[in-house]
Amino acid sequence: xxxxxxxxxxxxxxxxxxxxxxxxxxxxxxxxxxxxxxxxxxxxxxxxxxxxxxxxxxxxxxxxxxxxxxxxxxxxxxxxxxxxxxxxxxxxxxxxxxxxxxxxxxxxxxxxxxxxx
Length: 117
Hints:
Elements: H1 3-13, H2 15-67, H3 70-79, E1 84-85, E2 88-89, H4 93-115
Helix pairs in contact: 1-2, 2-4, 3-4
């Protein structure tokens, strides 16, 4: 099979194609993160790398609380047949969740900003 025909075959499968794209993007992100970590460790030393990792960990913790599980909600609602009619949401729950997450993100960002001063 030619590479182009493999891609066309995967597009027809839908879910398999989307899964392959997600896998490739996540794997690329992991490789990029690894390369950034190696670069920082080699070029800036142990102390800067330690500060980088600590800051990154704190940002991930705050973002977990600030997002309020919206990513999981979106995955659940897009798979739920009773939530939408041909891709159009039947209620405003998701819209209200996005607004709530926006406000909580601003609050957590402000707290994080002033905590570092």
